[in-house]
Amino acid sequence: MAKRAEDHPEFTIDMLADVACVALNRLPPRYVRHDVDMMFYLTERERHAIELSMEEALHFAFGFVMERASKITAA
Predict the structure, then answer these.
(1) What residue segments make up the domains of the chain, in order of their start?
(2) Which of 16, 12, 21, 23 is nearest to 2 (CA)?
(3) Which of 13, 14, 25, 49 has its CA 20 to 30 A from that of 68?
(4) CA-CA distance, 56 to 59, in Å (whole number)?
(5) Three-state DSSP class for 14?
(6) CA–CA separation, 34 vs 28, rounded Å?
(7) Cα–Cα distance between 2 and 10 in angstroms, integer?
(8) How many CA atoms lie within 13 A of 64 on its CB side?
């Protein structure tokens, strides 16, 4: 998310928190204590699918929050 946030300098801290919440709500839960656990228990195909899902969720979330923010400022 940090890389995408750099592309949206107009987003406030609260907007970025909203982006994180919207994106996380679109993803299935994964309970991983350490990165090595995730790498060990997932196949390459599963890791790739998770990365794609995260990218899709972030893309949606940034658009969603941007759209809502523009409606608020227009009102």
Answers:
(1) 2-74
(2) 16
(3) 49
(4) 5
(5) helix
(6) 18
(7) 14
(8) 16
- 30-56 burial code (b ≥16 CB/10 A, e <16): eeeeeeeeeeeeeeeeeeeeeeeeeee
Residues counted in the chain: 75
CA angle 18, 19, 23 (to 5 degrees): 115
Query: By the 8 A CB rule, do 56 and 25 touch?
Result: no
Structure confidence by residue, pLDDT tens digits, 18-32:
999 999 999 998 777
